[in-house]
């Protein structure tokens, strides 16, 4: 339970005052007027690269107004291991003192202020120390002094993790938005039960170790997928919308302080092979977070560029691109002449192709592609087709004008998550074997569990979850056949939840025959009247050895729903004509006021929303999500822990910690204190990816705002 | 994963046809016209006592109408281990052939039939074999033949569990209705967080092993607490409302086929000491299920009698009463002259007192009572006071006229779950030490998590959950101080869920200031705008070293809710005047049509229900619930499993299996086949609680209907 240890130091840090304006925060990670990023209470892997951002705020008005709106430009910043003498940060890390930056921003203090359009301007003085690292395990104090003696101290902990590798490969599945509640529902509709006994089991059910991870953000208790992916991949929680940076207040969305990801470290330390697979458009947050560093997950063009070039506006971890990238989102690859919206107007199919990637755009080509070459597979515009439409309501599969060449055809030869993941395993295993055998890391995301839960489309969401589970089973079998199952840690987890559950059955015949909303609700059977699942063995669909419902449209369906939703209508019946649109703007433009979609679920009853009226879909929820583990190192994934611990556990298994890099004597120099910076000496072969540790300040920002 | 193994035999059994009328089933555990209880696919602990019920149905009308409504009275019933020659059941078990019984019942086939009041009568021929057992591990076939060749075969599996004891004591906590989602919410409001790092942890968070258990019923996917407790305590799933019986169709609610509970077996095999603790009225399902056997959980008087006398209408496991019974529900103890509604009009305080129990009715007396004597502690009429009212809104604690002597005073000296549980440990440990040192089993239930979630009273429910967690921590400390922590397996689980989650924060000031329902919804902050929890460190309440909110009424509260609810109004603010009443019947008597309670949450917005309009509260949900384990034998509680597996795991740890009782040669007789019945021979000292295995048929039913 390392991550939750309350040290005396941490308790002391807790005495800092908090600003309690919740709805709109001045700057989430900084409740005081002096900001240190990474903030107090953050953990680090030994040797993990990160940036530091300091800010001093002077709000011009409001309850926090200070110093006439003039921020202190003479702030100081000292760092030391606790118990040692604080040292100016530039000296401590052996870098040049960064230049002073200034800017301003505005915010609303609360909803009343927003309604009154009463903004609070804040003037800022700031600095950034870039690309530093801490090696020696222990607690460090980083103290910002400003406004004549005010101080903000961040206690940073370098975890004491040995540099011992325990697994060669990691196959990480992420069911986006997937909760235990959803897994339970998916099991019910796809696995036959006799007298309370399941006759088959989910793959997840057969994983030997279960943990629970807490998904909250640094500065809010509900997270989004960018911020949660950051936690899973870097061990650092951040703010909603942020990818692998702490969010500062500057206008530039690409200058926020970065943290190195597991993919970057695995490549830097081992030249490890990385695979990225998702059913989303591939610039979406969960795949993006393996390589991108920006506080704005919406910078899709830059995300795609980061996949192949890494970070280019600052010196950062060298990055040569993953072995495979499989997903949707052709609109960030196609040339602008075909409607592509890409970084710097380039044709990214060409960019990847020139770098040696085989480019494929359908499942047939994917399966035929050599396992020896790197492959970019983009199979549709936007998110890929849903399992339910690909396999059952196939009329929705065509006609989408979503072909990945952006020429207006239909993408009707898309692989599923299973086909993509098995191919990824083949390529990564082949290529790792042929170049050093340093192992591989694959992230495979079932993205549309989340996307379909957002739109209350339960059937499609559960179909995606079942596809994930089918992929899990097939992957384990495939790894076993390849003889590498014992070398591979298989993990299944999620990044956050939706407040979903099943509470009974619904008699569709009865509901459809009733005339009033209240009468329709009496179609719902609770407790004993929920009966048995009718999704299995009441129809004729068959999927070979895979477990999916045999009937998606039985008389007795699941009654299910959310703790939060927009106005909508419920008939608890499958949406055969394609993904659901529960709420629509029927009051004009811009669309800020959503009501029941009059054409959705027409035989159902109206459910008014519990969300703000500008919400057209459901939102993420608080619940801890499960972590399932199988393979070498599985035993450390049991129990309850923070989302960031998933990173530290994976890093432990992959042997990414370098606690002795300095104390072992391999680095010495006069420009820094021992034990906590990188110098220019010989770092040993594990560090071949790093040319130097010195900060390259603000060099030619490449991504403009 | 023993419980889910799909054998070829089980697959064959799956070919049986199913009736798919869901809302109203003819008889849940019997989709065919010939019924065997225990039904197909059931598991048994070696040596566990059970009854067998056979029924042949002849529906008079409807789609299942058969044989002119005349049930076959000449049915036969054979049993054998698979691969051996089937033997008539009476011979197999060495009991007399039971007499034929007949009756009839009616049911509605679906909601249309109910609306039309079109009942379907069913005539029944039946038999019951009582108090039998199977010892030898393996699969048995039990075949009912009826209607000239039709047959229903139940495959029963005796699990292969060694008779090895691995823990001396078990402390089983049940958070009724508690889900991972609720634990996450409780952690958020009671444990301080700085920058995404919790500064303290739940006790549950620190349990090393997590499992997930599936809570569904035998015959419906949503369970109630009686049926789910039956699964946890006997390893047999049943039907909603049933306590330790399979539900037959006879009019007598006390003649359904029984299954022996863990408490009964522990007492029979080891003279083990049992403690029963709950914050509910003590006749409620979760405590009742340790000793009661009836399909109607509402038979409260009989439940209380079963606590002290065990089962008295049939010969059954000898039972001498638990060491402690602590809870509410004085109305089932007080003499009828004081308003008590008791079994046979007796004063059960006197009944227990005459049997040597110290009777206490408040916390002061409880704490003073000797640990050497058995104690009955009943502390209030009905359910006990909620933590929130006992500790924060104390004005609601008095004035309830709920004193446990039923004389109209106020029960204002009630112990909490912690005080009851620690005292239970003291008594059980003292008494076990002084009589054979055979260990103890305590079930401690936080009952009002469920009760308050039913009425959408989030604050009170989370208060109860936090009290459970505080009790867990205190119990582990206490066991450690007593030197018996290493002898005690500590488990925390639930019996089912509610579809609850948190999805943001709510600005109470803003909501209360808005005038329309839609404007009020805009007070809700999602994602980044959910902010940090304000329940900690914004108020002045303090609970010593226990973790509870310091402010239950902050400006920014949790926005939370359910997937299922009646019509109600939400303001997401604490209900200071006592437990919530979300919906009321405003249309007359009888109360079958519920609307928003006009006096509840007056500054909130209306949320229409998603449940039948006769629902005045929320309902249980499908989700798997967590199992936390700490102590000897903890390692077998990881992974995903069925609720019944909790019983088999506990029975494994306590050494309750007797797979070799017969094959060891200790029993032989001409009146039965070897290996699967009990005869009258010497069963060895482990079986001292059993006088014989023969069935005592229908002897003097004591509980009338």
UniProtKB/TrEMBL annotation, chains A, B:
It comes from Baudoinia panamericana (strain UAMH 10762) (Angels' share fungus). SMART domains: alkPPc. The keyword Magnesium applies. Mg(2+) binds at residues 176, 284, 286, 445. The keyword Heme does not apply. Its cofactor is Mg(2+); Zn(2+). Keywords: Magnesium, Metal-binding, Signal, Zinc. One of its GO terms (molecular function) is alkaline phosphatase activity. This is alkaline phosphatase.
């Amino acid at each position: 339970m390392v991550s939750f240890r309350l040290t005396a130091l941490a308790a002391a840090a807790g005495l800092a005052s908090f600003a309690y304006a919740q709805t709109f925060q001045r700057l989430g990670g900084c409740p005081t007027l002096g900001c240190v990023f990474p903030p107090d209470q953050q953990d680090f892997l030994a040797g993990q690269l990160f940036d530091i951002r300091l800010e001093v705020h002077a709000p011009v008005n409001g309850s926090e107004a200070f110093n006439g709106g003039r921020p202190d430009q003479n702030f100081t910043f000292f760092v030391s291991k606790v118990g040692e003498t604080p040292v100016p940060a530039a000296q401590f890390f052996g870098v040049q003192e960064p230049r002073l930056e200034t800017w301003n921003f505005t915010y609303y203090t609360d909803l009343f202020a927003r309604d009154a359009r009463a903004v609070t301007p804040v003037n800022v003085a700031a600095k950034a120390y870039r690309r530093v690292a801490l090696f020696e395990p222990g607690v460090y104090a980083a103290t910002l002094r400003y406004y004549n003696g005010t101080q903000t101290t961040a206690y940073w902990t370098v975890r004491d993790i040995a540099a011992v590798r325990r697994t060669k490969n990691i196959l990480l599945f992420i069911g986006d938005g997937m909760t235990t509640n959803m897994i339970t529902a998916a099991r019910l509709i796809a696995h036959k039960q006799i007298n309370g006994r399941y006759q088959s089991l989910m793959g997840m059910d057969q994983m030997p170790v279960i943990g629970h991870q807490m998904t909250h953000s640094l500065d809010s208790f509900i997270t989004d997928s960018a911020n949660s992916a950051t936690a899973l991949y870097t061990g650092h929680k951040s703010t909603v919308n942020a990818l692998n940076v702490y969010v500062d207040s500057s206008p530039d969305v690409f200058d926020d302080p970065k943290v190195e990801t597991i993919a970057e470290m695995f490549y830097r330390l081992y030249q490890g092979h990385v695979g990225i697979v998702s059913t989303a458009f591939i610039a979406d947050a969960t795949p993006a977070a393996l390589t991108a560093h920006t506080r704005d997950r919406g910078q899709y063009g830059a995300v795609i560029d980061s996949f192949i070039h890494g970070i280019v506006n600052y010196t950062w971890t060298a990055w040569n691109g993953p072995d495979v990238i499989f997903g949707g989102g052709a609109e960030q690859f196609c040339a602008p002449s075909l409607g592509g919206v890409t970084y710097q107007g380039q044709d990214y199919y060409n960019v990847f192709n020139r770098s040696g990637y085989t480019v494929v755009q359908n499942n047939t080509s994917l399966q035929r592609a050599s396992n020896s070459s790197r492959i970019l597979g983009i199979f549709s515009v936007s998110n890929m087709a849903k399992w339910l439409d690909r396999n059952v309501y196939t009329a929705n599969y065509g006609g989408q004008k979503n072909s990945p060449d952006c020429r207006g055809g239909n993408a009707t030869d898309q692989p599923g998550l299973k086909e993509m993941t098995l191919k990824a395993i083949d390529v990564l295993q082949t290529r790792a074997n042929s170049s050093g055998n340093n192992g591989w890391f694959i992230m495979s995301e079932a993205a549309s569990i989340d996307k379909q839960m957002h739109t209350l489309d339960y059937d499609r969401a559960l179909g995606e979850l079942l596809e994930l589970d089918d992929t899990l089973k097939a992957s384990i079998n495939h790894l076993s056949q390849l003889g590498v199952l014992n070398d591979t840690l298989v993990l299944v987890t999620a990044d956050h939840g939706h407040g979903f559950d099943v509470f009974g059955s619904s008699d569709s015949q009865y509901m459809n025959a009733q005339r009033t909303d209240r009468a329709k609700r009496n179609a719902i059977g609770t407790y004993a009247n929920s009966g048995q699942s009718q999704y299995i063995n009441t129809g004729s669909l068959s999927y070979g050895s895979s477990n999916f419902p045999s009937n998606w449209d039985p008389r007795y369906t699941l009654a299910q729903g959310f703790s939060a939703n927009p106005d909508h209508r419920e008939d608890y019946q499958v949406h055969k004509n394609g993904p659901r649109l529960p709420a629509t703007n029927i009051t004009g433009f811009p669309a800020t006021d959503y009501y029941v979609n009059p054409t959705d679920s027409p035989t159902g009853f109206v459910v008014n929303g519990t969300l703000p009226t500008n919400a057209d879909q459901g939102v993420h929820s608080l619940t801890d999500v499960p972590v399932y583990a199988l393979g070498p190192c599985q035993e450390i994934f049991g129990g309850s822990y923070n989302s960031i611990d998933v990173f530290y556990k994976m890093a432990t298994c992959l042997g990414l910690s370098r606690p002795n890099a300095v104390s072992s004597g391999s680095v010495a120099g006069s420009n820094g204190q021992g034990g906590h910076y990188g110098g220019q000496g010989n770092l040993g072969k594990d560090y071949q990816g790093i040319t130097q540790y010195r900060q390259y300040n603000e060099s030619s920002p490449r991504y403009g705002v």
